Every structure is written in C-alpha cells, then in structure tokens.
Amino acid sequence: MNTTQTGANHHFVQKALLRNFCIANAERAWTFDKQDCRSFTQHIDKIASQRGFYDLPNDQDVKCLEPCITQIENRGLPIIKSIIENKRVDHLSAQERASLSLYVALQRVRTTWSRNSLRTHLEQSRDAINARRDFFEQENIEYSDEFIQSLAVQTLILWRMNMQGNW
Hints:
Layout: E1 9-11, H1 15-18, E2 28-33, E3 38-43, E4 49-51, E5 55-57, E6 62-64, H2 66-86, H3 94-109, H4 112-131, H5 133-138, H6 145-163
C-alpha cells in the first residue's frame, strides 16, 4: 500500500466494466439516482465513484488501497472480457475461476453500503465491548483500542459466517 492516488476519484465499479454499458461511441451511460428517483446519462468518470474513497488516513500520512484493488482488477478484467466474447464460462481454467471469484468478492465489498454496514457493525461491537469494560478489568484482561478493534473484527467474521450458513 502506498500514498499514490490519494484524493483521486476512486470508482467502486471499475471504469472498464462501466464501458460495457456505455451509449454507442460515448463514455456515457444511463444511471439511476435512487434518492431522486430519476434516470439520466452521465460520463463514466462520475458513475459509481467518490473522491478519496480508498484513502486510509492515519497519524503520519494517508495510504491508498487503490493500487491493491487495481492488481485484483487487472487479473479479473481479461476474464470478464473473455466471458463476454465467448458468451460462456465453461472455458475458464481453475486459476481463472479463482481470480474471477476474488474479483467478484471485491465488487461485493467495495461499495458505500458495505463500508457503512461494516462501520456500523464495528461501532456497535465497540459499544457492546465498552459496556463490559468492568468485566475485562475485573478479569485482568488487557483493554486497549487495539483489543477492542480485534474483538469487533472477530465478531464481524463470526456474524458473516453465521449469515452465510457456515457456522
């Protein structure tokens, strides 16, 4: 992870994917605004994107997830193109299927909804853990922000496993 591309317009849906939905000979596609309940055309630079969406600020500087995401996208995009061209998936190798799975999983979690859902869950977990602070102190369990974050992430993993029936 590095500091390049911080503050840039980061897409939650890759522009190369959006091009498959563009109006002929234009980098524009139809979009639907759920809040205003209206349809309109828009340049793909402005669709499914937000400035600094993948920036991770910390005390020293700002790191950017975009280069890591780009690596996954670069492996998945040729596979998507192959599926579109062949109109089938049975020609994919096991490695291509694995790369495509990672690509699809990335698409699932890179949205504002997913980010807000994770943030809400982590905040609720933190609050629940903080409410039991006396228990941790009584049991002489180290109680720090890192400990709280670790417990919150563990509860999120268990919650996801339960939701997916992998419990």
